Automatic annotation (TrEMBL):
The lineage of its organism: Bacteria, Bacillati, Actinomycetota, Actinomycetes, Kitasatosporales. It comes from Streptomyces achmelvichensis. This is DUF2293 domain-containing protein.
Amino acid sequence: MDVVVIEPRKGRHCAECRQGPLTMHIREFNAPLCLVCADLAHLAYLPRGSAALTRRAREASSLSAVVVRFNRRRRRYERQGLLVEEAALARAESACLADAEARARRRERDAARRAGEDVRFTAELTAEILRLFPRCPPARAQDIATHSAARGSGRVGRTAAGRSLRQAR
Ligand SMILES: [Zn+2]
């Protein structure tokens, strides 16, 4: 089970070393104990927010503590973050960073593939415009096709191309 660390709303002093006011403490025998006296001072704080980072840091850390704060309106303790070993946090961060890099690379590949599709779409559309409107100058047909490919292929693009074409005649 996780150790629970409390972020007190009011300053508390450690029951053992009298240090304070404390920003975080645990409760032992119903008295506040500072993180130094609780042997938790070496842990690093990870605020909540990234589920993946939190899960990885917790898995990598042999000791972790949940940090909670009392919400008076809701009358319950709410999780604020996690205390984990520094090395575990560093490992979790680099794992998440590697994931983010992989995602970015995939997005880049997708964008490159879409750009390739746009080029093909533009060429096909240019040919189609020239077939339907033989008197349209090829450069103009190319412009229209490029414009509509840039706005995204599909019906909207084709409709826009048709509109431009009508305006051009
Ligand atoms: Zn203390």
